[in-house]
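Table 4 source record.
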Amino acid sequence: MKYIVLLGDGMADLPSEKLSNKTPLEIAKKPNIDSLAKRGICGMVKTVPDGMKPGSDVANLSVIGYDPLKYYSGRSPLEALSIGIDMASDDLSVRCNLVTLSSASKYSEKVMIDYSAGEISTAEAAELINALQLQLGSDKFKLYSGVSYRHCLIAKHSKRGTEYTPPHDILDKCISKYLPCGLYGAELLQLMEKSVQILESHPINIDRVAKGKKPANSIWLWGEGVKPKLPLYSDLYGKSAAIISAVDLLKGIGIAGGMKVIEVAGATGTIDTNFLGKAEACIEAIKSGLDYVYLHMEAPDECGHQGDYAGKIKSIELIDEIVAGHVLKQLEGEDVRILVVPDHPTPLDMRTHTSDSVPFIIYDSTTAYNGVEKYTELECSKTGITVESGEELAKLFFGGKNK
């Protein structure tokens, strides 16, 4: 038996007046995924443990099958692994976004315009991060460039104890109430303030403004953590595994868990990603002998944060047509189980994550079940099947029993 997870990040939602009180999953045309729902086990799963924030870090760890209550050590360290940073046991890793803030002269009075600086390119971002490292780097703090707007700050010989707010949670809000505070709050805020002076005058941003693009005019620090310690996936579940994603966070989870991390040309983490390339990489991994592939697609989440209603619906349709359709066609006649699930909801009206349970399908090509007509939040909730954690869902997916 082969196992494939089709993870639409942030795909679940709440009914919206702008969508005639429906959700994107209810509106999107997705015949391939709906066909799996008709023949699969459908229900709702709680991916975020009580008391934990509904970030993609916690939620994806959960769906992959790692209990966040046992194994979560922070978001940024997982991204640091993907970037190739060799963290010491007493290093602290902090997520560093390149963001667009408003032009208010006083830093605390600025407004968060865009948490991604207009989805700045990786090449442009690397130049900016290198410039910041030259002027702000020290024996204690070092900046490393990642992908697009997602980067990393390493604080040497440091510990947890600072409070932060993710920038995607405060879009269009004044940042005064959300600045770092606590153990290293003052030091990190100083870095953020100094970054404005460097970034605003950088040729990259001058060119972006001239072209009508959003400038990356500040860094935003959040998501601290220490070096992760995950058991090998092959030891935990007895499966040889791979992960496919455009996002450093997911690649870092794969590296930490000893999974094969498969790079796909043109994978961006947005609706413009190479969906077909990801689907083909998944099939190739399965046919090469791997047991399990976690295929992560970020586009619905990005559209949710941007409040892009049409984009989120379209991203679901592309996942269905290009990814699910290709996987089903290529594996026709094979013994395969497919799990379709989001990691968390990213409601369009809220533009941030929630901890609500999400709908899932477990499809088994060797066994037919009486599922639901359409894969939606409402239809999956009607089955009465509830799974209390991502770890429990993983065990069910691999053939265990749900009490």
